[in-house]
Structure formats: C-alpha cells, structure tokens
Amino acid sequence: MNWELLQNYGPRMLSGLLVTLELVALSITFGAVLAVPIALGRMSKNRAIGALSFAYVYAVRGTPLLAQTFLVYYGAGQFRAELQAVGLWWLFKDAFFCCVLTFTLNTAAYQAEILRGAIMSVPRGQSEAAMSLGLAPRAVFRMVVAPQAILLALRPLGNEIILMIKGSSVAAIVTVFDLMGATRLAYSRSFDFQVYLWAAVLYLALVEIIRRVWDHIEHRLTRHIRRA
C-alpha cells in the first residue's frame, strides 16, 4: 500500500467521485423527464409517433454509449458555426455538458422501456374498473395506472442507475475529470496500478450505497403490499 501516493492523489480522486455523482444525477434526472413522453409515444395509437419513439429507443439501445459520446463531443465541432448561430455552442464546447447530454439521451431510452413495461404490466381490468366509475382516461392513468407502474419500475430503475454509474467512466475519454479521469491522470504520473484498485473500490462503495438506499426506498413504498 503506497500511502504517499494515496495522500497525493486521494483528494483528487474524491473530487472526481463528486463529478461522477453530479454527472449521473443530472443525466438520470433529465433522462427520467424525457423518458415519460417517449414511453407514452411507444404506446401511442398514432403510427407516426409510435414509429419515431421506437426508432429513437432502437437506435440508442443498439449503439454503444462510447460511440454516442464521441458522436456528440467530436461531431458537434463539425457544426460549430451553426451552433454558434443558434446560441448552443456553449453547451457543446464543454466536455462535461456533452457527457450530460449524451448520458441523458442514453438513459432516457432505457428508462422509457422500463416505464413502458411497467405500465403494460398493470392489469387492464383496473383501468376498466376505474373508467366504469366515470373517471376520465387521464385521471385513470394518473390515479390508478401510474402509481402502480412506478412501484413495478422501481427495481429496474435502480439497476439503470447503477449501470449509468459504471457507464459514466467513458466520460474520462473525452477529458472529463470524473473518478476514472482522475484515476487515469494519477496513473499517468505515478505508473502505479494501485490507483485503479482504489477507483474500483470507490465505484464498488458507491454502487453499494445506491443499492442500499434504493432497497430502503422500495421497502418503504411497498410496505402496504407486504402487509396485504
């Protein structure tokens, strides 16, 4: 154990861990907002909307996150003049914001499929029973279907958060100094493989904390089901 190396680069790696948390938190939050209309679009009776939603989900889930990150980060530079004209170059010239955008678009596709599956898993009889009481379709979805779908989606959504935490390491390749970026910098200066071991331990600790917190949330939200 190289304690001097840990003293020199430990704070930088912890700072990178905070960047990872910020990156994942923003991506998951924005992705969740975007996932709702995509999931509804996937179930829409309008063929055009359904086809567009399917194409988006199919393209995002069928390509690697690394390739998507390169397309946004390096591809945006090809349209610098156009982006400057519409006032969006500030977003695409920053590697961190490019990663937030890419990860948001990526996780939105996965979260949309999770939500769609959860909504379709709610028994149709409950919707029919609610409509028989005179509730409008929107009220049925908001008061009957959505609460149950959220409970069904909790576990896979937790898995998606964990996958995004691990997948966020690709941000280091486009010069974002997240946990893996700080680790690469430490290794390039020390050539000591221990820094990667420390990074693995930090990722493992972060995932375990998220797992326990998510388990607690799921336990609290589903306690009425267990009692029944």
Description:
The chain is an all-alpha fold and 228 residues long. It contains eleven helices and no strands. The radius of gyration is 21 Å and the shape is flat.
- Poorly predicted runs of 5 or more residues: none
User: What form results from the Cα inertia axes?
Assistant: flat
Main β-sheet description: none
- By secondary-structure content and strand pairing, the structural class works out as mainly alpha
Helix content: over 70%
Give the termini distance in whole angstroms.
52 Å
Total E-strand runs = 0
Oligomer: single chain
Q: Mean of residue pLDDT?
A: 91
Radius of gyration, Cα only, in angstroms? 21 Å
Q: What proportion strand?
A: under 5%
- Total helices: the number is 11
Instruction: Give the helices and strands as they follow along the chain.
Output: HHHHHHHHHHH
Short description:
By secondary structure, this protein is mainly α.
Write the layout of secondary structure elements.
Elements: H1 3-42, H2 47-61, H3 65-75, H4 80-85, H5 89-92, H6 95-121, H7 124-132, H8 137-167, H9 179-190, H10 194-221, H11 223-227
Helix pairs in contact: 1-2, 1-6, 1-9, 2-6, 3-6, 6-8, 7-8, 8-10, 9-10
